[in-house]
Write a structure and sequence with these properties.
The protein is α+β, with helices and mostly antiparallel strands and about 300 residues long. The protein has 3 domains: about 1-80, Uridine Diphospho-n-acetylenolpyruvylglucosamine Reductase, domain 2 (2-Layer Sandwich), CATH 3.30.43; about 85-210, 2-Layer Sandwich (Uridine Diphospho-n-acetylenolpyruvylglucosamine Reductase, domain 3), CATH 3.30.465.10; about 220-290, Uridine Diphospho-n-acetylenolpyruvylglucosamine Reductase, domain 1. About 25% of the residues lie in helices and about 25% in strands. The protein contains 6 helices and 18 strands. It has helices at about 40-50, 105-110, 130-135, 195-210, 230-240, 265-285, and strands at about 15-20, 30-35, 55-60, 65-70, 75-80, 85-90, 95-100, 115, 135-140, 140, 145-155, 160-165, 180-190, 190, 220, 250, 260, 295. Strands 6-7-13-11-12 form a 5-stranded antiparallel beta sheet, with helices on one face. Strands 1-2-5-3 form a 4-stranded mixed beta sheet, with no helix packed on it. A hairpin with a 6-residue loop joins strand 16 (about 250) and strand 17 (about 260). It is globular and about 50 Å long. It starts with 12 loop residues before the first strand and ends with a strand. The mean pLDDT is about 95.
């Protein structure tokens, strides 16, 4: 790994052999060869321009929907943080947010600006970058319904705006997933409404989430996408895996599509549980469960 001895000079931080478990909500996973914490967009661009193009690169946010395998991750993991967390109301019921802004903060800022339509983000654990990449949604709304454009950076450090039409959104998928792009931020459009009314709807979403999801556990949110005509939680429940231990992993007794680290789980426990359940659901119900949680890195 001689490339690690010739990393570009940065204004942010470069961390070698950095454990990734603290960067994810599951709190599992091995180290990355390098973790880069860029100071801002210019710092990230300069780094990518100078980095050997053969070195693998991937960006993460708060790791809410991410499972890092125990063997760690090759190349550079870019953690977007303070330099990418601004929110600005633009007028005409539009709002712009950096990729590191938590979805719940985006919802709150939109409410304060009297913008309706983004309330559902109060129920999504994660950041704007992840929401843009995976077309995140809940309670009948998705990112595709409110996003107008995404600001992205490619592997050469070049920046451009992608309008909604170029994002190729489908259920929990976007064209960004098929390329080599880093989401820097996005612009959203809602409709005008009284801030108090928007906040009241957000409060309902938050209350519902708190009573139906294990939000205080080490979890990654929804484990599987909902297959056409089915609810993943019911398929997992019918297969008998709600609350059933698998090493240190378990599908939550509160919500059967939320996998949790009960305390000492490894990434292998969590991924093994998911794949075991997928196989049983396929055998019992003839339905293919597709992972919604992104899994990266090397197994041990």
């Amino acid at each position: 790994m001689t490339w690690r001895n010739h990393l570009p000079t940065v204004r942010g931080k470069l961390l070698r052999d950095e454990p990734l478990a603290p960067f994810t909500w599951f709190r599992v996973g091995g180290p990355a060869d390098v973790v880069f914490l860029p100071e801002d967009e210019a710092d990230l661009s300069d780094f990518l321009k100078a980095l050997d193009p053969a070195v693998p690169v991937m960006a993460i946010g708060v790791g809410s929907n991410l499972l890092v395998r125990d063997g760690g991750v090759d190349g550079v993991v870019i953690r977007l943080g303070r330099g990418f967390n601004t929110v600005e109301a633009l007028g005409d019921s539009r709002i712009r947010a950096g990729s590191a802004v938590p979805d719940a903060i985006l919802a709150r800022k939109a409410a304060e600006a009297g913008i309706a339509g983004l309330e559902f983000y109060a129920g999504i654990p994660g950041t704007v970058g992840g929401a843009v990449i995976m077309n995140a949604g809940c309670y009948g709304a998705e990112t595709v319904d409110v996003l107008t454009s995404a600001r992205v950076m490619d592997r050469t450090g070049a920046v451009r705006d992608m309008p909604l039409a170029e994002l190729g959104y489908t259920y929990r998928h976007s064209a960004i997933q098929d390329g080599d792009l880093i989401v820097l931020g996005a612009t959203f459009a809602g409709t005008p409404d009284d801030p108090a009314a928007v906040k009241a709807r957000m409060a309902q979403i938050t209350a519902r989430r708190e009573t139906t999801q294990p939000i205080r556990e080490k979890t990654g949110g929804s484990t599987f996408k909902n297959p056409p005509g089915h609810s993943s939680w019911k398929l997992v429940d019918d297969a008998g895996w709600r609350g059933k231990p698998f090493g240190g992993a378990m599908f939550s007794p509160l919500h059967a599509n939320f996998m949790i680290n009960t305390g000492e789980a490894t990434a292998a426990d969590l991924e093994g549980l998911g794949d075991t359940v997928r196989a049983q659901v396929k055998a019992d119900a003839g339905v293919d469960l597709e992972w919604e949680i992104k899994r990266i890195g090397r197994p041990v």
